[in-house]
Specification:
CATH topology: Nucleoside Triphosphate Pyrophosphohydrolase
CATH class: Alpha Beta
Strand content: 35-45%
CATH architecture: Alpha-Beta Complex
Order of helices and strands: EEEEHEEEHH
Strand order of the largest sheet: 4-1-6-5
Number of domains: 1
Largest sheet: 4 strands, mixed
Length: 142
């Protein structure tokens, strides 16, 4: 079984909108929480800061560890076909975070292609991955 550890940030603005990134590497294009996989030896808080900067253009600071979500993806459901021979265990570390600098911009040539702010009602209408609802529940937003 493969293991992937990733860190994600739940960020809201003064209008109570949530920051999401549009993931383009999956089976379908869908909105997700900004964040991503840890590099070898990388601290999760540093990883979420790096990933948020890459995907959204914002510099962030974490303010709270919300929790860890664990999921095993069967081999047949893996995104990359060349990896579909074995299941994937994902550990997703979720932080509440706040913006301390930067400006909204879109990632180029990455796993996401845009980012944006959405109200909870708008999130409910989006094509999104399950992680969005999990993260928003952990943050007490849903």
């Amino acid at each position: 079984m493969d293991l992937r550890v990733a860190a994600y940030g739940v960020i809201t603005d003064d209008d109570h909108r949530v920051l999401l990134a549009r993931w383009v590497e999956g089976r379908r294009v869908a909105w997700t929480m900004p964040g991503g996989g840890l590099e070898d030896g990388e601290d999760p808080e540093l990883a979420v800061r790096r990933e948020l900067r890459e995907e959204t253009g914002f510099d962030i600071e974490t303010t709270e560890l919300l929790g860890i979500h664990s999921r095993v993806i069967p081999a047949s459901r893996r995104v990359r076909r060349d990896e579909s021979h074995t299941p994937l265990h994902t550990l997703r570390i979720l932080y509440r975070a706040e913006i301390v600098g930067g400006a909204l911009r879109f990632e180029k040539n990455g796993s996401t292609d845009m980012a944006g702010w959405f109200t909870v009602d708008e999130v409910a209408e989006l094509q999104r991955v399950k992680l969005v609802d999990i993260a928003l529940r952990m943050a007490g937003i849903l």
